[in-house]
Design brief:
169 residues; Rossmann fold; 34% helix; alpha/beta
Length: 169
C-alpha cells in the first residue's frame, strides 16, 4: 500500500500568485506577458515585483521614467512613481494579452533586484524573470539577476528569453 493519490484524484490547485520581475525593459515586458498568461492558466493572481535603486550616474528601466533629475539624492516620491509606472505597464500588457482578467499586485522595493525578487516570491507558486542578452553569445547566457534567482530560488523559476523565437520557415 502506498500513500500516493488515486489515479483519478485531482491535482492540487496552485494557491500562491505567479511572481514576475519587471523593470520596464523589453526583456522584462516579455516576462510579464508570459507571467500574465501563466496566471490565467493557473487561475491565480499576478505579483509584479520591481527593485529600484537611484544612482544618478546609472539608472535604467522604470527608474528613468520615475525621475529625470540629477540632484544626487533620492528623488521625492520615488516609490510612488515607480509603483505607478509598473502598474501602468502591467495594465497595458494585460490588455494586450486579453482573456480572463488577472488580479494584479504590484510590489516595488528599494534594493538589489535578485534579493527583492526572492523576497517578493516567498509565497508564490512560480517566479518568472527575463534575461538580458545583447550579443549572439549574450542571448545564450543568463543575466546576473536571473542567474542569481535561479541558483537561490525556493520555487520553480522560468527565465523568458529577451526575444520570442521565430518559427522555422
Amino acid at each position: 500500500m502506498t500513500d500516493s493519490p488515486a489515479p483519478d484524484a485531482k491535482r492540487p490547485v496552485a494557491e500562491g500568485p505567479v511572481a514576475v520581475g519587471t523593470d520596464g525593459s523589453p526583456p522584462a515586458r516579455e516576462a510579464v506577458l508570459f507571467a500574465l498568461r501563466e496566471a490565467q492558466l493557473r487561475g491565480v493572481a499576478l505579483r509584479a515585483v520591481c527593485a529600484y535603486d537611484y544612482v544618478p550616474a546609472r539608472h535604467t528601466g522604470m527608474e528613468r521614467m520615475a525621475w529625470p533629475g540629477t540632484s544626487g539624492g533620492y528623488p521625492p516620491h520615488q516609490y510612488d512613481l515607480v509603483t505607478q509606472a509598473v502598474a501602468d505597464s502591467v495594465a497595458e500588457l494585460a490588455r494586450q494579452v486579453g482573456g480572463p482578467p488577472v488580479e494584479v499586485e504590484v510590489r516595488c522595493e528599494l534594493g538589489r533586484p535578485a534579493q527583492v525578487l526572492l523576497e517578493g516570491s516567498t509565497d508564490a507558486c512560480l517566479l518568472v524573470v527575463g534575461t538580458r542578452g545583447s550579443s549572439a553569445w549574450g542571448r545564450l547566457t543568463l543575466g546576473s539577476t536571473s542567474t542569481e534567482v535561479v541558483h537561490h530560488a525556493h520555487l520553480p523559476v522560468v527565465v523568458v528569453p529577451a526575444e520570442p523565437h521565430e518559427a522555422p520557415a
